Amino acid sequence: MRYDESGDRPGRQGEESVQDDPEHREEDAVVGPRAKGDATIGASIVARGLTKIYGQGADAFHALGPIDLDIRPGEFVSLIGPSGCGKSTTLLLVSGLEPYSDGSVEIDGKPLREPISDVGIVFQDHLLLEFRTAMRNVMIQQEIRGLDKATLRSRAADLFERLELTGAENRYPWQLSGGMRQRVSIARALVHDPSMLLMDEPFGALDAITRTQIRHDLEMLWLNTQKTVLFITHSIDEAVGLSDRVLVMSKSPGRIVDEIVIDLPRPRPAHLGDYPEFAGYARRIYEIFEKLGVYRFGQAGS
Ligand SMILES: Nc1ncnc2c1ncn2[C@@H]1O[C@H](COP(=O)(O)OP(=O)(O)OP(=O)(O)O)[C@@H](O)[C@H]1O
Ligand SMILES: [Mg+2]
Fold first, then answer.
1. Whole-structure pTM value
2. Which of 6, 53, 154, 225 is the S-S candidate for 101 at Cβ 3.0 to 4.6 Å?
């Protein structure tokens, strides 16, 4: 199903849509973004039977689902799964950038009908504009959205400080390291104070040392801002290191096959092995992947 003119999107066939559920009536719904003091706190993300089929007819390709999501306001949830299972597709569907084929999505209790603006997205590739300085890359949100310049400038300065970017404001992307470029794209995703942050393998291209540091910096930023984060990664360490919950996906077409609640104190250390529980969480994810045939490790000579 594509976005239709009325914007209505029925639930899965034979299933009651969340929209029909009196518990989820629109007038009862919390309308985001919600303000707490100066900052917006996280939105909830609820999906039922979310499915994506790219193309049509003979070219139709079932890429995702059906999957259900129940992400609470301010929660940090990771999606982990094999390449091609539909992780990026999930992110695109939840942001409204790509229409879903079946199911339903509600952001903060409101049915998703169009691309949402109350969101920050970070992709694997930083996607900064090479002809703009770091600060002007971040301030592009103010220009596009027509927001108050002084407020955004002050938020940007705060984010530069928290993300260890002080001094990089007037440098161009080509004058920054890979880690710094990714930090600038995180600042750009947060400067308009969105209620949710969608991150698609944001640290995939970074070296291990930079990844560990930026993981910690993201965790601290998240602890201080209460955004809802949906974080996509291939890295088991990163998923366990950052998340409240890890959702594990099967091979294509991806479904959620397990959910692991990560009950570790925060902020988490650089060396996650400090927690005896860490090995147990990581092993559980490896075992799921082995069972699904994602990993096929044999004996030498076999
Ligand atoms: N626009 C598109 N048209 C047709 N097929 C697509 C399109 N986008 C993605 N796909 C296919 O859908 C499947 C899921 O793609 P997706 O990018 O969501 O996977 P992923 O889990 O993010 O993979 P990776 O870990 O490699 O980034 C893949 O088989 C991909 O080829
Ligand atoms: Mg992807």
1. 0.85
2. 53
